Amino acid sequence: MFKEFSALLGKEIILELRGKYALGGLLLYVISTVFVVYLSVVKVTNIPVWNALFWIIFLFAATNAVAKAFVQDGKEQLLYLYTLASPRSVIMAKITYNTLLLVTVSLVTYAFYGLFIGNPVENTWLYLCTLILGAAGFSGTLTLLSSIAAQTNNNVTLLSILGFPVLMPMLITLLKLSKNAADGLDFSVSVKYLPVLLALNLIVAALSYILFPYLWRD
Amino acid sequence: MEIKKDWWKFLSIVLVLTAIIGGMLIPVPRLAILNETIRNLFYHVTMWFAMMILMTGSVFYSIKHLRSFDVMDDAKARISAEAGLVMGVLGLVTGSVWAKFTWGAYWVNDPKLNGAAVTILVYLAYMILRNSLPEERQRGRISAVYNIFAYVLLMVFLMILPRMTDSLHPGSGGNPAFSNYDLDDTMRIIFYPAIIGWTLFAAWFAQLKFRLFKLNYKLESDLFDLKQPS
Amino acid sequence: MHIHSVPIKIIALTFLILSTVSVFAQGDIEMADRMRSEGKIYVVVAVLSVVFLGLAVYLITLDRRISKMEKEKENQ
User: Fold this and answer.
1) C10-23, pLDDT tens digit by residue?
2) How far apart are CA A93 and CA A15, in angstroms?
3) Fewer CB in a 10 Å sphere around the end CB: N or C, chain B?
4) Where are the domains of chain A?
């Protein structure tokens, strides 16, 4: 099981590194979005607005990033994959890989966003911690949904339609926690959100683990 | 219709009628701002309860569908969700009207409202997903997975949301209305039957729709059999 | 259709109970007390009930029609 998982994860990473333009395209997407925001508002001093804008950019970038998780391998390729590996290790490998991808994207977004728009964050460690939890949660939710959306023919649009309402609980908690981190509030104020986020990530991962086998069976 | 089998349909009529008659006539707590509109509890709030119960039914059939792969279970899941959506939209519209007269705006930033809006978005997405999957078996399976996934996260959302923000609704700070959702006991007598009544009423519609679906399905498969030389 | 016996009695009973429990205490907060004391509220309640019952009866006929279709399908 673990061997299968690590082999699949390795495969995803190698594929990503081989086709450099995919990751590059994603990063360019983030940078140009940030630049558009910069051109329209220049500097944002209001922390809630700063924070909300950041998460919106990241949310759209994440949707775009994960949308191709099941599209880049064609239908035949996926069928072949399923004969080799159990569906549960496939989904876990995809989620892990997407988490790594989204962490990278979020860090790049954070860096460029801070560079252009300004960075008022006081508690950087907590903010980065929120980013990682957020990336893991987004990846857990969106990976399963992207395998659903991949079975239709307008998958990116459908992924946003399916994903945004479902992501709402996570997003609202993330916004709260990251705003607290940006405001530099005492850790004791924000600590209660961490278990909520962890629990959400666990729920999402467990649901994907249970439900994914039903998606590819034909 | 036979009373033995369809007793719940008559029960729904009786209970909704109780809600209409009783809801208008019983004495209610005298509260500022709300005044007589507190009676909307029997008509507006019950829509949400009915919707949530129907959605739960929908998820139940989705789980059943994943175990049996029966087309009929999938149809039941879809139709319950549709009936739930109707109740949800009615709840949203009635809530909007009520909000205008108590809080001064058709839409206020309130976790209960936002939770309701997200619920409706989720189920609209469910319907769109169904429509973009042409093949019957695939559609049943995939939309069942989405239904279960979304329902669990929705429940989590409805649980954590009120803890994240203040609500105008009863039970939270800053609200002049009933301070701790302590409905008064006479209101309870009508409120609970009203929930059951509206739910059963919507379930009745859903059942009719399902029976029509089944008839249509049989008719179509008959036609198909005629075409196939055996 | 055996609607005539039990439910009607229950409706009558609930109506009776509910119309007797109504107590309209005067308070500081303005309510539609006048509408109640003049008995006009019953007019509204009656109208609402009739509308709902009408819809319900319509639904029942629809239900029976579908039942008939189901029977025809089975006997085919």
Assistant:
1) 555 555 454 444 44
2) 13
3) C
4) 2-216
